[in-house]
Design a protein that fits this description.
- The structure holds two protein chains of two kinds.
- By secondary structure, chain A is mainly α.
- Helix content of chain A is 76%, strand content 0%.
- Chain B is mostly helical.
- Chain B has helices at 5-10, 13-34, 41-55, 60-71, 74-79, 82-87, 89-94, 96-120, 125-131, 138-148, 152-176, 182-204, 206-241.
- In chain B, helix 8 (96-120) runs antiparallel to helix 9 and helix 8 (96-120) packs across helix 13 (206-241).
- Chain B is globular.
- Classes of the chains: A mainly alpha, B mainly alpha.
- Chains A and B meet through helix 1, helix 2, helix 3, helix 4 and helix 5 of A and helix 2, helix 3, helix 4, helix 5 and helix 6 of B.
């Protein structure tokens, strides 16, 4: 029974997100609206983590399994990979370094400043 | 009449599901035995399924009948990403200004550099669109890519590769930029390389791990909003210059 109730809460919120996204013509995908809705419901204590814990860990513990079909779709675009693999790799490596560097430096600088003020 | 046994098997919806489950189990097994980060379970599973389908001459659409059953869980999986975010709420509140500014600027400059570097190395528009969400977690990245009109499989590949780069080189990159603050290291790894990078951050320490997992959801939501604006803006600027 508990699993069905958990699934009902999660799928219900997901459906609500999808409906809001399409009815209001929002540029934000329904699954992400669903995530925001669930976050608000958790913060306001309307939904408790324990109410959805089993289905949540089912979905999150091996999250990557659910991406297999999307990844297998690569077989329909193998030609693109063959002709652009080094460009893709250059973009992936360089931008990962950039995002990590910029984010880290900003967080470190701001948190040091706030700490200085507190002292 | 000759009975085509292979077709009877592959036409069943369960074929794609069972093949994916078996491939993933094998991927986890190989990853655990070797402990080599590049041998990511998902990457192995995708490779196994593709090789299997090519070997038996089965097309993607046949496999994808079962694939769509698995795809159905992507939506709810994104929704429950709110749970780890909620669990780290106190940590976020303590350092809200630094974390939110860092993730916002990091994601923004990240998207700009993805578009810029992709253009410089000569990638075309459909691939650039696919690469824009490469730093965020896969379910969110898939949504952003399909909304921009990108090629979702390319996005998935770029996201996995980015995750592996972040997990393998994350600590080195942080040292290179003299990022020593534990909160900053965690947020940097989580923002740049989502859940795969977070697995490495968890090994570095509790604070780093919590900060990294917190950043996955925040970077995802921010990128959903930033990505279309920056991408369309870049096209506008490109046409202005031309």
């Amino acid at each position: 029974m508990k699993l069905f109730r958990e699934a009902l809460i999660i799928f219900g919120i997901y459906l609500l997100g999808e409906l809001l996204s399409s009815l209001l013509h929002l540029p934000i995908p329904g699954n992400i609206l669903g995530m925001v809705i669930l976050f608000i419901l958790l913060c306001t204590n309307i939904v408790k983590v324990d109410n959805i814990s089993n289905v949540t860990s089912f979905l999150l513990d091996h999250l990557s399994f659910f991406f297999i079909p999307a990844g297998v779709g690569l077989m329909t675009s193998l030609g693109i990979i063959k002709s652009t693999w080094w460009q893709l790799l250059v973009v992936c490596i360089s931008t990962t370094i950039i995002v990590m560097g910029v984010t880290g430096i900003i967080v470190q600088t701001i948190s040091r400043k706030t700490k200085d003020k507190n002292i | 009449m000759k009975v085509n046994y292979l077709e009877i098997v592959t036409n069943n919806i369960l074929f794609g599901v069972v093949l994916s489950l078996a491939a993933f189990e094998t991927g986890i097994f190989i990853n655990r035995k070797t402990r080599i980060p590049i041998l990511n379970p998902l990457l192995i599973a995708i490779a196994i399924v593709i090789c299997f389908l090519f070997a038996l001459n089965i097309d993607f659409d046949t496999y994808n009948k079962g694939g769509q059953v698995i795809n159905m869980f992507l939506g709810p999986a994104t929704v429950v990403l709110a749970v780890p975010l909620y669990k780290q709420l106190d940590l976020l509140k303590k350092n809200a200004k630094a974390i939110l500014t860092g993730i916002f600027v990091g994601s923004l400059i990240g998207i700009c550099s993805i578009i810029g570097i992709s253009y410089l190395v000569g990638l075309d528009a459909s691939i650039i669109k696919s690469l824009v969400p490469k730093s965020v977690t896969t379910p969110i990245g898939i949504s952003i890519s399909s909304q921009l009109g990108g090629l979702v499989p390319i996005t998935v590949l770029a996201i996995i590769v980015t995750g592996i780069i972040g997990a393998v080189f994350g600590p080195t990159i942080c040292k290179l930029f003299k990022i020593k603050d534990k909160v900053a290291v965690g947020v940097a790894i989580g923002t740049a390389s989502h859940a795969v990078g977070t697995s490495k951050a968890l090994q570095l320490g509790e604070v780093e791990g919590a900060m990294s997992s917190l950043s996955i959801g925040i970077a995802g939501i921010m990128t959903v909003i930033i990505a279309p604006v920056v991408y369309n803006g870049s096209i506008f600027i490109y046409h202005m210059i031309k």
